[in-house]
């Protein structure tokens, strides 16, 4: 019997009853922690970008992609908070001098 393209590329089949089922496994992906921003983006992908979600999942790059998105969003969030603190005059010096006023400005 002639080899299929799948077999020529190194794929193998598993016999289940009368059928030959290809042995397909997702590539191993390094687990990285995903924070709140990555989880929110995951929900967005699942609901509004299903093709992108499926492509990332099947290629084994979903976890890495979400971890990178989470890191970028966290950095932007921290810059935004720092900018708001400076714009409103909330500094560590105010915290030391007048803790009550500092709490009210937050």
Mean pLDDT figure:
84
Strand fraction band?
5-15%
Spans of at least 5 consecutive residues whose pLDDT stays below 50 are none
Class by SSE composition: mainly alpha
Give a short overview.
The chain is mainly alpha-helical. It has one domain (27-105). It contains six helices and two strands; from the N terminus they run H-E-E-H-H-H-H-H.
Features:
two-stranded antiparallel ribbon, 8% strand, 2 strands, single chain, 63% helix, 6 helices
Give an account of the 3D structure.
With 106 residues, the chain is mainly α. It has 6 helices and 2 strands; from the N terminus they run H-E-E-H-H-H-H-H. It has helices spanning 5-8, 36-48, 50-59, 62-88, 92-97, 99-105, and strands at residues 13-16, 19-22. A hairpin with a 2-residue loop joins strand 1 and strand 2. Helix 2 packs across helix 3 (50-59) and helix 2 packs across helix 4. The chain is rod-shaped and about 85 Å long.
